[in-house]
Specification:
This protein is mostly helical. The chain has 19 helices and four strands.
C-alpha cells in the first residue's frame, strides 16, 4: 500500500525529478490499470476467482479512500453546556462524492454479484478455439471475436426457466450500465474545458463543422430526423468525427456568447451571426450530440473528453470519472457475454436462418463496438432520447428508435421491469443535473444522458 501511494504522490515519475503527471491523472490511471488487470480476462460468464475479487476490493478501497479527505464546509448547529445554540461550520465529504461514490460502489457490487450468479451447473457451456474450428455449426455472431470461447447450448436450446433467468440477468446489467454511463457523463460535463483544447479550435463554428453540416444545422426549419438520415454514420470513425466537430462548435459558440465585449478572439467582433441565432444553433448542436450519444453509446472518448481527463486537476472528478468508466466497461463486457449465450440459444431453436441472423448482427455492430450496438438495438423496453422528446427519428442501420407519446408512458413502462429487487437498489442512485440540456433526459430510465467511454 505504501509503495502504491508513493508512486501516486510522485506522479508516476519514479526518478523524483518532478516530471510526473498530476495527482488527479495518476489516480485516474491507477484505477484504470487496476480494472484492466482484474477484469481483462473476463471471457466467460463465471464468478471471479476469490483471490482476484479480494484484490479488487482491497485495492479499489485504497484508491477511493482519497475521497474521504475531499471535504467542504457546511453549516451545523451546536449546543453549548448552558443550552444556547449557535451555528458553526463543519466539514463534510464534497457533495458530488457523497452522492456518487456510494452509488458506484453499489453498481460495482451488483456486477460482481451478477457474475457470482453463474456459479454451478448451467445449461450452457463454452468450447475452445480448436473445438470451434472443428465444429461445422456456425454460431458465431462476429468473426472478429475469434479470441473468445464460443458458448454452446443443448440441441433444443435453453429451457424456458433458464432463458427467463438469463434475460433477467441481462436486464439488471443493462440498468447498471445506464447508471454508470449517466454518472460518467455528468462528471465529464462538470470538468473544466482545458485551455489547450480551446486554443486548438478554429475561430468559428462553421470551420469546425464544415459547410455541409453547418448549412444543415442553420436552416430555418431544423429537423433532427432529416439531419441524421443525410449524414454518413456508416463507420465508427465517421460517427466519432461528427461528435468531435459538434462538441467543438458548441464550445466555440458558448465562448462567443460569454465574451460579448469582444476583448478576445472569441468575441463577436466581425461576426455576422446574432447572439440569438448562435444560441439557437448551439441548442440544435446539443440536440444532435444527445442523439449521437443515445444511438451510439459505445463510441470511444471524444477529443474533448480525452483532453478533459488529461488536463483535469480535480482529484475528486478524476476518481469519479475513472471509477464509473471501468464499471461501465465491465457492464458492457458482461452484457456482451449474456447476449452471446442468448444468440446461441436462438440459433439452436431455429438453425435455418442462422447465417442471415449473423449477417444482420454484423450490420448492426459494424459502425460501433459490437457489444454496445447490441445493447442499444436489442434491449427490451429500452426507451431512447427520441421517445422522451417526442421526435420521430427513422430507424437506421445502426439502431432502431421506437416512438413514445409522452414522458408518462416512459415512466409507466419503466415501472414494469420484472426484477423488482434490482430496481429497488437502483432507485437510491441519484445523479445531479448540471447542464441545461442534460435536464431534457432526466427521466430517461430515471437517469441522465450516456456518453461513450473506453
Amino acid at each position: 500500500m505504501k509503495e502504491k501511494f508513493a508512486k501516486l504522490l510522485l506522479g508516476e515519475d519514479m526518478s523524483g525529478g518532478g516530471k510526473g503527471v498530476s495527482s488527479a491523472l495518476a489516480l485516474s490511471n491507477a484505477i484504470t490499470n487496476l480494472a484492466a488487470s482484474v477484469f481483462g480476462e473476463q471471457r466467460k460468464l463465471e464468478p471471479m476467482p476469490a483471490d482476484t475479487k479480494a484484490r479488487w476490493r482491497k485495492e479499489i478501497d485504497w484508491l477511493l479512500s482519497v475521497t474521504d479527505h475531499i471535504v467542504e464546509f457546511v453549516p451545523s448547529q451546536q449546543k453549548s453546556q448552558d443550552g444556547t445554540t449557535m451555528e458553526i461550520m463543519t466539514t463534510r465529504q464534497r457533495n458530488d462524492l457523497l452522492v456518487n461514490i456510494p452509488a458506484l460502489r453499489k453498481l460495482d457490487a451488483m456486477l460482481i454479484e451478477c457474475l457470482d450468479n453463474f456459479e454451478g451447473p448451467n445449461e450452457f457451456w463454452y468450447v475452445s478455439k480448436s473445438e470451434k474450428d472443428s465444429d461445422n455449426e456456425s454460431t458465431n455472431r462476429h468473426e472478429d471475436k475469434w479470441w473468445l470461447p464460443t458458448p454452446k447450448v443443448p440441441p433444443n436450446g435453453l429451457s424456458d426457466e433458464a432463458r427467463r433467468w438469463l434475460q433477467c440477468q441481462k436486464d439488471s446489467v443493462n440498468q447498471v450500465l445506464k447508471a454508470a454511463m449517466a454518472i460518467n457523463a455528468q462528471v465529464l460535463s462538470e470538468m473544466e474545458i482545458p485551455d489547450d483544447y480551446i486554443e486548438s479550435l478554429p475561430k468559428n463554428g462553421r470551420s469546425s463543422l464544415g459547410d455541409s453540416i453547418y448549412r444543415s444545422i442553420t436552416v430555418e426549419f431544423f429537423d433532427p430526423e432529416q439531419f441524421l438520415s443525410a449524414v454518413d454514420l456508416s463507420t465508427e470513425h465517421k460517427v466519432l468525427d461528427l461528435k468531435n466537430r459538434i462538441e467543438a462548435s458548441i464550445v466555440i459558440w458558448t465562448r462567443k456568447m460569454t465574451n460579448k465585449d469582444g476583448k478576445s478572439h472569441w468575441g463577436t467582433m466581425g461576426s455576422t451571426v446574432s447572439l440569438e441565432k448562435r444560441e439557437l444553433f448551439e441548442e440544435r448542436a446539443e440536440t444532435i450530440l444527445l442523439l449521437l450519444k443515445q444511438q451510439f453509446p459505445g463510441l470511444p472518448q471524444s477529443s474533448l473528453d480525452i483532453s478533459k481527463i488529461q488536463y483535469n486537476m480535480d482529484v475528486g472528478h478524476a476518481i469519479l470519472e475513472s471509477y464509473s468508466r471501468v464499471i461501465e466497461s465491465l457492464a458492457f463486457t458482461v452484457l456482451s457475454r449474456i447476449e452471446d449465450v442468448l444468440y446461441a440459444d436462438s440459433v439452436a431453436q431455429d438453425p435455418s436462418p442462422a447465417e442471415t441472423k449473423s449477417e444482420q448482427s454484423s450490420k448492426v455492430s459494424s459502425p460501433l463496438h459490437e457489444d454496445d450496438a447490441r445493447n442499444s438495438a436489442e434491449t427490451p423496453n429500452a426507451f431512447t432520447l427520441s421517445d422522451f422528446m417526442g421526435w420521430n427519428v427513422a430507424p437506421t442501420e445502426t439502431t432502431t428508435v421506437k416512438k413514445s407519446e409522452s414522458s408518462n408512458n416512459l415512466m409507466d413502462a419503466t415501472s414494469k421491469v420484472d426484477n423488482e429487487k434490482i430496481m429497488t437498489k437502483l432507485a437510491n442512485i441519484v445523479t445531479q443535473k448540471k447542464l441545461s440540456y442534460l435536464e431534457k433526459i432526466e427521466n430517461l430510465s430515471g437517469l441522465r444522458s450516456p456518453t461513450g467511454r473506453h
